C-alpha cells in the first residue's frame, strides 16, 4: 500500500507495475518513486518498455497490475483537472495543420486555467521567427519545438518528455536543455525518456535503466554502474610513437610518474573514466 505521506510528497509513485500485450510482457514489475521537483530520466533500449510505462502514467494506457499514483491521482481515473496539471510532449507528433504556430499555441492556451503567455512560450522554444508559419510547412525539428511549446503552455507541475530532442540540431538541443533546466529551477517535476546519454547526464538528477520491462538500476548519472569508483584510463604516446594506456585507481600517481619520466609535457596525455554511455551499454548488454 502507498502511505499518505509518500502520496503527498511524490510526484510519481509506482509499485509492481505490469503490462502485457497478448503473450508479450512489456512491463514486468516496475517500481519507481519520483519526488516532486526532480528531473528523472528513463533509459533503455528499443522495446524496453519505456513508452508503455510513461503512457500508463499519463493515463493513456491501461495496466494489468500494480499501484500507480501521479500527483496523488491514479491516472486510470484521470479527470480534466488532473490533466491540466500534467504536461505531455509525445513522441514525433506529425501535424499537417493549416493553422500557424501562433494560432495553434493561442488555441491550446484556451484549454488551461493558468496558461503561460503564448508569445513568450513561442519565444522560449525559439519559434518566434516561424510564428506566422503554417504547421504543415515546419521542419521536423521545428515541429518538435512546437510540441514542447504545447507541453509547457499550461504550467504543468509534472512534465513528461518522451524523446524530446529527436531530430533537433545540436544548437537546438542545447537550447532545449537550457529550457528544461529553467523549468526544473521553477520546480517542475520532469520525467524524460531519451536515447541520448549525454542528454540524461546533463539534465537528470537520477536515471533509471530499464531493460526487458524491468528496472536494472536507479542512480545519479555520475554513480550509475559503479561509475564513481571506476578505474581511470591514463593514455599517452611513447617516444617511438606507440600509443600506451593503463587502467588505474590512482591516475594522479601514474601522471606524476609519467611527468618525471618525460621531464615536462607528456605527449598525447589523457585521463578518462567510463562515460554514462559506457556503463549503460555494459548494463543493457548483460540483460
Ligand atoms: P523505444 O525506445 O523503441 O521507444 P520503448 O522502451 O518505449 O521502446 P515500448 O514502446 O514500451 O518500448 O514497447 C515495449 C514492448 O511492448 C515492445 O516489445 C513492443 O513491441 C510492445 N508493444 C508496445 N506497444 C504495443 C501494442 N500496442 N501492442 C502490442 N505490443 C506492443
Entry summary:
By secondary structure, this protein is of the alpha/beta class. The protein has helices spanning 4-9, 50-57, 80-84, 101-109, 118-124, 140-152, 170-185, 197-203, 251-262, 276-285; strands spanning 10-21, 24-35, 39-43, 65-70, 86-89, 158-162, 189-193, 206-211, 214-219, 232-237, 243-248, 270-272.
Describe this structure in words.
This protein is of the alpha/beta class and 287 residues long. Helix content is 32%, strand content 26%. It is built from ten helices and twelve strands. A six-stranded mixed sheet has the order 5-6-7-3-8-9, sandwiched between helices. A three-stranded antiparallel sheet has the order 2-1-4. A hairpin with a 5-residue loop joins strand 10 (232-237) and strand 11. The radius of gyration is 22 Å and the shape is globular. The chain binds adenosine-5'-triphosphate. Adenosine-5'-triphosphate (ATP) is lined by residues 21, 24, 26, 44, 46-52. Residues 21, 24, 26, 44, 46-52 line the site of adenosine-5'-triphosphate (ATP).
Amino acid at each position: 500500500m502507498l502511505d499518505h505521506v509518500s502520496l503527498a510528497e511524490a510526484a510519481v509513485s509506482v509499485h509492481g507495475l505490469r503490462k502485457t500485450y497478448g503473450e508479450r510482457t512489456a512491463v514486468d514489475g516496475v517500481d519507481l518513486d519520483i519526488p516532486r521537483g526532480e528531473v528523472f530520466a528513463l533509459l533503455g533500449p528499443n522495446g524496453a518498455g519505456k513508452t508503455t510505462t510513461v503512457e500508463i502514467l499519463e493515463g493513456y494506457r491501461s495496466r494489468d497490475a500494480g499501484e500507480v499514483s501521479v500527483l496523488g491521482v491514479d491516472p486510470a481515473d484521470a479527470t480534466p483537472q488532473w490533466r491540466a496539471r500534467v504536461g505531455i510532449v509525445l513522441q514525433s507528433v506529425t501535424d499537417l495543420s493549416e493553422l500557424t504556430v501562433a494560432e495553434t499555441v493561442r488555441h491550446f492556451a484556451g484549454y488551461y486555467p493558468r496558461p503561460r503567455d503564448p508569445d513568450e512560450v513561442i519565444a522560449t522554444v525559439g519559434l518566434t521567427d516561424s510564428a506566422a508559419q503554417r504547421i504543415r510547412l515546419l521542419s521536423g525539428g521545428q515541429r518538435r519545438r512546437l510540441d514542447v511549446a504545447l507541453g509547457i503552455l499550461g504550467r504543468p507541475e509534472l512534465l513528461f518528455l518522451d524523446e524530446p530532442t529527436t531530430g533537433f540540431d545540436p544548437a537546438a538541443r542545447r537550447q532545449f536543455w537550457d529550457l528544461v533546466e529553467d523549468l526544473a529551477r521553477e520546480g517542475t517535476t520532469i520525467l524524460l525518456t531519451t536515447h541520448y546519454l549525454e542528454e540524461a547526464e546533463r539534465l537528470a538528477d537520477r536515471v533509471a535503466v530499464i531493460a526487458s520491462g524491468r528496472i536494472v538500476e536507479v542512480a545519479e548519472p555520475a554513480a550509475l554502474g559503479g561509475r564513481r569508483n571506476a578505474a581511470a584510463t591514463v593514455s599517452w604516446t611513447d617516444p617511438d610513437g606507440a600509443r600506451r594506456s593503463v587502467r588505474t585507481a590512482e591516475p594522479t600517481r601514474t601522471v606524476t610518474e609519467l611527468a618525471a619520466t618525460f621531464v615536462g609535457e607528456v605527449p598525447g596525455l589523457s585521463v578518462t573514466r567510463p562515460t554514462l554511455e559506457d556503463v549503460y551499454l555494459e548494463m543493457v548488454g548483460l540483460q
